[in-house]
Amino acid sequence: MSHWFEEQLDIAKGRALRIRTRRLLEKTRSDFQEIEVYDTDAFGRMLVHDGVIMLTEFDEAHYHEMIAHVALITHPDPRDVLVIGGGDGGTLREVLRHAQVRNARLCEIDPMVVEVCRRHFPGLASGFNDPRVTLHFEDGAEFIRRHTAAFDLIIVDSSDPVGPAEVLFRKEFYSSMRNALKPGGIVVTQSESMLYHAELIGEIAAFCRTLFPLYRYYYTLVPTYPSGLIGFSFCSLGPDPLHEVDLERITALGPMRYYSAEIHRAAFTLPAGAQRIFKD
Fold first, then answer.
1. How far apart are CA 138 and CA 140, in angstroms?
2. Are 162 and 131 in contact (CB under 8 A)?
3. Euclidean distance between the first and the last CA atom of the chain, given in angstroms as a whole number
């Protein structure tokens, strides 16, 4: 029997998202959060943490392709990659498309997320068994402090800035990531919706510009996320995603559902209202 799942985005402002589900496939509680997996009519399987939609099969590629490939194509030789968060495996799956990647580490605080996604989302979790991959189950902020000049690329595939993920949106964490980059390295982080979270994004952009020579913001369209889109902070010690990028490398990655050379360029073009967030 079907029922309606409702994510309360911001009840004070009258925002909610309702999705009809066919059945609840799993519901469990880890040491960190409640985890649910639903089968839905419109979006396939759906992963939920503490009442918040993490992904659906319908549009997960819009997010995972964009958080990974924009930086991986921009960096001339991304060999050592770290993913913080991303326990569903989707970002790791996209990272592993790149033949240059020799070592891919995933640091996820909640091992139960990986277990649940292995069972219910094998298409996302396929990369966990790749010999290039090492899994670490610990706090990402603590993990990154122990590394210096270790990574070509760090991707922070985090949930919203509440609970265990709150620390991942602080200046101290970004400073630690800068120290953990090799020369010319890149950091990409999940940075919320420019329509709903302008103040937070403005704060992130301001302190990133004091830490990195280059900061840009880009976005992707994800119908099941708040406002239908989500953005990313692109923080670089060298390469610029809009200049001197060999976009022909994209063809070697195989078929995509969202990312393309045209999207790579267009994703950095922001609406006039959003551009004001980044005024100095």
1. 6
2. no
3. 53
**Tens digit of each residue's pLDDT, the chain (280 residues):** 679 999 987 766 788 999 999 999 999 999 999 999 999 999 999 999 999 999 999 999 999 999 999 999 999 999 999 999 999 999 999 999 999 999 999 999 999 999 999 999 999 999 999 999 999 999 999 999 999 999 999 999 986 665 665 667 789 999 999 999 999 999 999 999 999 999 999 999 999 999 999 999 999 999 999 999 999 999 999 999 999 899 999 999 999 999 999 999 999 999 998 888 987 6
Annotated catalytic residue 157:
yes
Q: Which position among 139, 157, 240, 280 bears the catalytic label?
A: 157
Q: pTM of whole model > 0.70?
A: yes
Separation CA 276–CA 279 (nearest Å): 5
Phi, psi of 237 (to 5 degrees): -90, 5
